[in-house]
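Input sequence (273 aa), recorded before submission:
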Amino acid sequence: MGFIQADKLTYTYEGNLVPAVKEVSLSFKKGSYTAIIGHNGSGKSTLAKLLCGIFTPTGGKVLIDGMDTADEDNMASIREKCGMVFQNPDNQIVSSVVEEDVAFAPENLGVEPAQIRKAVDDALAAVGMTEYALHSTYKLSGGQKQRIAIAGILAMNPQCIVFDEATAMLDPAGRREISDTMRKLNQRGITVITVTHHMNEAAMADRIVVMNKGEVAMDGTPREIFARVDELRKLSLAVPQVTELLYDLGLPAALHAKEAADVIEEEIKKKCL
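Predicted structure, token format:
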């Protein structure tokens, strides 16, 4: 059984007849890095909120480290194990000073001051924001605010962080900051699940889940998923630019620029022989 286990997971919003998520069964191993993609309305963000216990299923169930998210008695433990970073960092920032914001959650749990101090320092160091500890949160850039939101969750020492379109409102530099932070957190052993519509970001994951009409349309490694260019296009989804370029040229798939350059160089060598 995975660290997060979804079994025939279903969720229907109040007043709707069609489920936003329909009988989805997925398993996520501890320490894995998964990207969830899909067109608008595919159910990917609803799935993300279900996977970390923000939403309670209307059918099926989700277990986080063996704990049923539908059991209210499990909520406090689940919140400590799995946190969520939302699209707009301003919605998660509650204090005007960076270190006070990061300390907010552990303070509310009654953690000892000395432990809070260490948790805040460690969390800020993990996201590269130590030098901003005493800065005003409202003066930070979008990417910096998102890193503070992540630090606030890290101060709880979670085993999993779910990112719901966390880079959608950021400029390219901010997206790189958060993407790099995701990768570093995963390298530390934290389970990362990211909902994104940026395909280059999805290509950094170990696994991609493609959602369509509330169901899982594809599930595999980035190389496996992005090799299915025609199927993705039918789902109104793009692929990384280098992948699309090589596909249109009839060359083997690649996910990154250097890899694409190697493929093209090899093809040129073949033509010259």
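Checked by second reader. The chain has a mean pLDDT of 91.
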